[in-house]
Amino acid sequence: MSAVRRSYTRPLDIKRGRVDLSHGSGGRATAQLVEELFIRHLDNPWLRGHDDSACFEPPPGRLVMTTDSHVVTPLFFPGGDIGCLAVNGTINDVAMAGATPLYLAAGFILEEGFPLSELERIVASMAQAATIAKVPVIAGDTKVVEHGKGDGLYLTTTGVGVVPEGVEIGGARARVGDVAIVSGDVGDHGVAILAQREHLQFESEIRSDTAALHELVAVMLAACPDIRCLRDPTRGGLATTLNEIAQQSGVGMLLQESAIPVASMVSAACEFLGLDPLYSANEGKLVAVCPAGDAAQLLEAMRAHPLGAHAAEIGACIADDNHFVQMQTRLGGRRVVDWLSGEQLPRIC
Amino acid sequence: MSAVRRSYTRPLDIKRGRVDLSHGSGGRATAQLVEELFIRHLDNPWLRGHDDSACFEPPPGRLVMTTDSHVVTPLFFPGGDIGCLAVNGTINDVAMAGATPLYLAAGFILEEGFPLSELERIVASMAQAATIAKVPVIAGDTKVVEHGKGDGLYLTTTGVGVVPEGVEIGGARARVGDVAIVSGDVGDHGVAILAQREHLQFESEIRSDTAALHELVAVMLAACPDIRCLRDPTRGGLATTLNEIAQQSGVGMLLQESAIPVASMVSAACEFLGLDPLYSANEGKLVAVCPAGDAAQLLEAMRAHPLGAHAAEIGACIADDNHFVQMQTRLGGRRVVDWLSGEQLPRIC
């Protein structure tokens, strides 16, 4: 965001104005949009510096970097919007390396004609999420594409963080005998988006679980420094995430269906919609794998945190050359929980 | 890119296949695309790790972070494509802070129906640019939007780099009496894109100047550690970049029109197209501001590097409370070189 303060003839008309191609030109209109909308909400010393990059002194330790493009539709949904979703999602990807998130960058692709009032709502939501998480957005970029070449707004966020000394977390570190824990009810985000898209009304509103999990992770690492794997089951849901870990670690998994927490509203909605909550996206949940002996202590610490109140042990890693994820069903049978095939819900995040 | 190796029933048909929504699902199809296309070309230990974030040990020093979304159309143009453009452009934004680029992340937004063969060409071009620059792409993400909600491919790249001890570069550091230097002929990229878009034929092909400038910057800093400002004049061109620096530093500038290098083909094309090369985008050029006493030495060092062969001193910083950029024209007059207003060329990068 290199554009700098000028005196403009008129302030940006955020209430009635719309994005036009000049806002992506890099010239005067871009400068005004950056100044009067982006910096006004995301204000911090880095953005105020108006350089093309942002400079910071990293704390000691290994750094992690992660990026995610967001194309969720609709842009606004019960429980959040693309702005807070992007901030929380990128913070979570950093946190899943056991790292403390430090800074974010944001790249906007706007469609010509997009209302400036909606852009402001989204940027304000990003700013609020960044403030709550204490992870500032220090660099950004805005491009504009012609009407019909986008879908309102796409948002790519990138995060960097620092891994505390002694923490070693990775998808390949699960061992036979370890247990798998999920931090709460699964499937909320995917069902909330689909319900909104299809204009479905349930008894009470199903809301996205979008939330930043780095403080929960810090609590978990304090309670159990030997956590092997952490991952947030977003696209593809819990089933896909567990398959990824099984594959990377070279183990099988055996889950207990009755132990997997699903909110009753989400369970009912899934039945109605023909969805499986195990494949429905989450945006404020995590899966942890830890040594069996640490599980009780870890669960206790998680349940004491608001974002881990419904944490549950859902299964264990077993020896299996095929690296299958299997599930003991409520009826006593066993079935393979495969990867997501095809596309259950496009543009869920 | 958390997807992991599986045995797929059939390999990806890159020659005839197209992107479909399942490639953005986060499930099996995403994993196959990541494995057989992205990792095959961008291969490095970070991507092979298959975690959602990439970990590295930063060298000592301040870090910089920068992000840019790329929406250039057409995706392929004389001298490059969106893939190498994104890699080089992000490296350049890092380098303009005087920093050594370390790592890149890439977020892809693909349109349903986009040919996998074109995606492969673009990823291979990114990989080649990253290899030449010695700056690996260590994290990535892929999303897919429905046909008609994108334009083939959008690409957001983020870079981190480290600023060597003692280097202090910023757009606000120009002082009255300093001189402005440009590293070579201006306007090439913008004219190359427009010519391609309009199917114009000139005597010889006008090619984008896309190139990574970090090695030129290293040579420049060795010759002149007191460089005040560095910036790459991309969108908005040389005129907008100089206005940004004048505004940030609180100085005026006086340019000599006759000193600004423009290739004769580009000059002729601009006249024909009604463009001004001062507002036409560059993707392999930089502007430097340095103390007047260092200019000769800096120019000599720049001209010894292939990417600075046509480097020229183009003007000086002067006292001006309005922070205007003025130009002494070839005819002896003086005119204000204003910011770019409106949009000269949409989707130039």
How would you briefly describe this protein structure?
The first copy, chain A, has 349 residues and is α+β, with helices and mostly antiparallel strands. Chain A has nine helices and 14 strands.
Descriptive report:
- The structure is a homodimer of 349-residue chains.
- The first copy, chain A, has 349 residues and is α+β, with helices and mostly antiparallel strands.
- Chain A has two domains: 21-163, PurM-like, N-terminal domain (60s Ribosomal Protein L30, Chain: A, 2-Layer Sandwich); 179-336, PurM-like C-terminal domain (Phosphoribosyl-aminoimidazole Synthetase, Chain A, domain 2), CATH 3.90.650.
- Chain A has nine helices and 14 strands.
- The relative contact order of chain A is 0.16.
- At the A-B interface, α1, β1, β2, β5 and β6 of A face α1, β1, β2, β5 and β6 of B.
- β2 (62-70) of chain A pairs antiparallel with β1 (54-56) of chain B.
Radius of gyration of chain A: 21 Å
What would CATH call the architecture of the largest domain in chain A?
Answer: Alpha-Beta Complex
Q: Count helical runs of chain A.
A: 9
In terms of quaternary structure, the protein is homodimer
Most extensive interface: pair and counts?
A: A-B, 89 and 89 residues
What is the overall shape of chain A?
A: globular
The helix content of chain A, as a percent range, equals 25-40%
The count of strands of chain A amounts to 14
Poorly predicted runs of 5 or more residues of chain A: 1-5
How much of the sequence lies in strands of chain A comes to 15-25%
| CATH homology-level superfamily of the largest domain in chain A | PurM-like C-terminal domain
Overall pLDDT metric of chain A:
94
Indicate how many domains the architecture of chain A comprises.
Answer: 2
**Largest sheet, strands/sense/barrel of chain A:** 7 strands, mixed
- First-to-last CA distance of chain A: 25 Å
The succession of helices and strands of chain A, N to C, reads HHEEEEHEHEEEHHEHEHEHEEE
Q: Based on helices, strands and strand pairing, what is the structural class of chain A?
A: alpha+beta
CATH top-level class of the largest domain in chain A: Alpha Beta
CATH topology of the largest domain in chain A: Phosphoribosyl-aminoimidazole Synthetase, Chain A, domain 2
Strand order of the largest sheet of chain A: 9-11-8-12-10-13-14
